Amino acid sequence: MATSIMADDKTTEKITIWGIVQGVGFRPFVAKLAARQGLRGEVLNTGGLVEITVTDTPARLSEFLDALTSEKPKPAEIIHIEREHVPYREFEGFKISESLDGDKDAAMIPADLSICQSCISEMDDPANERHRHPFISCMECGPRYTIIDKMPYDRESTSMDDFQMCSFCSEQYTDIADRRYHAQTISCYECGPQLLYKAFGGEDIVGSTEELLSLAVKLLDEGKVIAVKGAGGYNFICDPFQDCAVAALRETKARESKPFAVMFLNAGQVSEYCEMSETEKNLLESSAKPILLLERKQVDKATGKENGPSEFKRSRFIGAFLPSMGLHRLLLKSCGKPLIVTSANVSGLPMVKDDDDMFALASKSKGLVAGTFYNKREIRVAVDDSVVRVIDGKPQMIRRSKGYAPVPLYVRALGQVPDKSTELLACGGQLKSAFALSKGAFSYVSQYFGDLDSLENMQVYEENVERMKTFFGINPKAVVCDMHPLYETTKYANKYASRHGAKLIVVQHHHAHVASVMAEHNLTGPVIGVSFDGTGYGLDGAVWGGEFLICEGGSFIRDAHLKYVTMVGGDALVSDAWKSAVSYALVHERGELVMCADDEFVVDITEIIAASNVTENENWHIVKEAVNKKINTVESSSMGRLFDAVSSLLGICHENSYEGECAILLEDAAARALKNPGGSEKDSLALKFHRQVADTVFKRCVKIRERDGINKVALTGGVFQNRVLTEMVLKLLRDGGFDVYYNISVSPNDGGIALGQNYIGMCLLAV
Fold first, then answer.
1. Which of 112, 203, 461, 470 is deepest in the core (most CB within 10 A)?
2. Whether the Cβ atoms of residue 623 and residue 578 lie closer than 8 Å to each other
């Protein structure tokens, strides 16, 4: 466009910024920075971008941009900046102008931000107007994605629009020198959401915030379960030190034995019960406030006794996290101990976000839930807590959700940045589901939805597809899905493609797993993909899950796989580990385990079978007959089922009451053997098995490298959530000179395959 240079060589530029620049205090920051440097102009939201128009000398504008990128708010992320000369304009000072709809193609909605240290200091200050305010927030913290209705991000575009600002908040909101200048979630005791309470049976109890907090603490101390409305949905909360409270919670959620996450007041309190590195501490305290899987301290050094309540002893890990909002922090401080904080739902159903649904669920509990603490700020979308761990010294996502979604990942296909006309919907899998929408290089991976076995979960999934399409201005020209014909996501993809005239791309499950690693690390290939999990539909109709793939771009070759084993039980194999054990023992009995072709591999479990009493299983002969006659059987190369079988053969666990339980307890046994080499035979055999699997991975990768010259290895699949195995494999491969990659920003489990599908779709459309 035309440029006019006026007196003193001043010029006018329009600066466009892409990234996480809305809902993170970016416009107020820009205005304060410009005022500090004496610049004149304006800043505004336009669609999902920020535009700055400013007049000054080119040198001073460059200084302004340098300071803008180096001093930006912590939650902000700048992806790209463009500078453009525009016709000269005179401004009176610098202002934040009204937002425009603008270009929605590059919209980036911030994830929810946990309570910041400045707000914590105000909460703890008796002289502050927001002392102990449960819903305190500012420009750098508070709900974002969970309350937004549309872009651009302004108060009237969120559920905060229901709350009229008082004069006190309004004065801060309009004061450029105040840290709540243009803070869209600003509120106080007078004008914001207020804490309310409904007792079991429907009785409303009116009281001050302090009175209701005292009531909540009293109920928790009495061993009751309470429901509390968080930023992204309702939580059930109880005292983990009272077995009766935990039992009531398990009955309410229909959750038999899976460990619950535990919320702690601060990192110091966490360290009383968990081992914690500096990296883990930093992650625990990060703005996302994820649930962090930490190794439990087995023994209290002060007493010499086993550490913590019985609920903490269900696993060698504790899912620990810190409060992300003021209300939870107040409860923890008042109780003086950690609390179980878990999603409010019946297991397998969506997390509850609406007040009436919560009241109904509490009523159905028949008194197990004592009451509901809530507020009248509506939650637009339910987002569960993220789950993260540290492995290999780095954070790794186990469940990508609150605090991370829907921040996009930058994905290149075949090493190139896809054209922005490339718009895709990747539907993900059936379990631990998430989808991904992409436009150009930006892949928006959704929050976690859980398993899609229920109509309710599938409905929430479909609603969120439409919601995110609208937010990001994406109209998918192609839809990518798993090849399993019975997956709900596959059925949905077929209907979507037919209804919208979109191209349908079908991707093999384990190929998608490997591609998710390639997407994260920009690996163009060829890559050795080691994909180990429980179940995936194979090209030959068998159940795959112990796979070595050679992947490049959007294609793959199956190089080798765990030897097929005839297993009885179909879908019941996922829960009945003993059936896997019997199936493997029958193969061994026939002497077939040693007979394999070059594209198959075996893990020798002869010693484990010899040490077991599997033939004494009361169903041994029934299963044997079914296998021999191929009644309700499947051919399986699943590494996940092999881990289940070994867990059962060693007498560790025979049934999965939750996904992966048998394998998790097998890993715990191996971990004990690492720490105590002179322990039980059971633990020693568990560790030996892990070493055999790791050694098999290494040997196969060496063979492929010698043959094909490929040195890059991608480790993925749910089995690689096993820390003992993963760290063994990493060491062997690195010592052997391999370049090894694994999932970081998405999970190695099925929550990550949408990103892999997205990548494969991009590659195929680019060819």
1. 112
2. no
User: For residue 119, which of 141, 101, 103 has the smallest C-alpha distance?
Assistant: 141
For 702-736, what is each residue's pLDDT tens digit? 999 999 999 999 999 999 999 999 999 999 999 99
CB-based contact 760:422 (threshold 8 Å)? no
Q: How far apart are CA 368 and CA 715, in angstroms?
A: 43
Count of all residues that appear for the chain in the document: 767
Share of the chain above pLDDT 90, in %: 73
Average pLDDT, the chain: 91
Pick from 256, 233, 237, 254: nearest CA to 245: 237
Written in H, E and C, the secondary structure of 58-82 is: HHHHHHHHHHHHHHCCCCCEEEEEE
Residues β-bridged to residue 543: 537, 636
Q: Cα–Cα distance between 274 and 749 in angstroms, integer?
A: 25
Cα Rg for the chain, rounded, in angstroms?
A: 28
Q: Give CA–CA dist 268/274, Å, rounded.
A: 10
Average pLDDT (126-137) is: 97
Distance CA 476, CA 478 (A): 5
Specify whether the CB–CB gap between 380 and 147 falls below 8 A. yes
- pTM of the prediction? 0.90
Tell me the residue type at 223: G
Whether 496 and 425 have beta carbons less than 8 Å apart is answered as yes
**Helix-strand-coil split of the chain, %, nearest 5:** 35, 25, 40
Amino acid of residue 207: G
Amino acid at 143: P
**Can you tell me the distance from the alpha carbon of 106 to that of 81, in angstroms, rounded to the nearest whole number?**
13
pLDDT tens digits, one per residue of 218-269: 999 999 999 999 999 999 999 999 999 999 999 999 998 999 999 999 999 9
pLDDT tens, 564-623? 999 887 655 678 899 999 999 988 887 776 444 567 778 889 999 999 988 887 888 888
Q: Rounded to whole angstroms, how far apart are CA atoms 625 and 568? A: 10
State the Cα–Cα distance between residues 250 and 260, nearest whole angstrom. Answer: 9
* Helix (H), strand (E) at residue 394: strand 394-399
Q: Evaluate if residue 6 carries a pLDDT over 70.
A: no
CA pair distance 270, 386, nearest whole angstrom = 18
pLDDT digit string (tens) for 354-369? 999 999 999 999 899 9
Q: How far apart are CA 113 and CA 134, in angstroms?
A: 15
Tokens of 74: 């912590």
Pinpoint the alpha helices (H) of 320-454.
326-335, 355-364
d(CA 536, CA 638): 8
Secondary structure of 210-279 as H, E, C letters: HHHHHHHHHHHHCCCEEEEECCCCEEEEECCCCHHHHHHHHHHHCCCCCCCCEECCCHHHHCCCECCCHH
- Cβ atoms of 168 and 188 within 8 Å: the answer is yes
